[in-house]
Amino acid sequence: MLLKYDPQVNLVKNNGLTPLAIACKQGHKEIVEILLEYNSNVNLADKSGINPLLIACHCGHEEIVKLLLLHNADINTISKIKGENALYYSCWKGHHAIVQILLEENSNINTATNSGATPLLISCAHGHKEIVELLLKHNANLYLTNKKGSSPLHKACQRGHKEIV
Fold it and tell me: Which regions span the lipid bilayer (predicted)?
């Protein structure tokens, strides 16, 4: 009903979130679809660089991720504070299906955060074996280290993930 009266679909709240970002966070796929029909800006980010795609990946909303990508969401957007991208968030949270989608869409597999953590390193640190296998099959660089010099192998050993070692 509100959209019939032409509200500002890209209006940003005090916390930096747009209606689209809020719907993505809450997992409201139908509302996301409606907002996209009304030309919500799929790449509009908050002050820290977090956009709807990063939110949907972090929260594990696979169908919303697909919708956003269909509407040209920037797959390689990087947050401003820590330097995470959609693939990093998905690996960190263990969202295997979303990782697969992002890799199929050519997400940059070796992009590191500001601390030097890559999607492979964070997957090893959190014991996400299936994601580690998927990343390696897509040629993730096994030799990249974070700023403290830790490799994916170091993280798997440190956290006791013998199935990854």
Answer: none
d(C-alpha 38, C-alpha 17), whole Å: 17
pTM over 0.90: yes
Q: Which tens digits make up the pLDDT trace of 84-93?
A: 999 999 999 9
CA 69, 74, 75, 79 dihedral sign is negative
d(CA 154, CA 151): 5
DSSP states of 91-106 as a string? HHHT-HHHHHHHHHTT
As a whole number of angstroms, the distance between CA 130 and CA 13 comes to 38
Residue 119 · residue 113 · CB < 8 Å? no
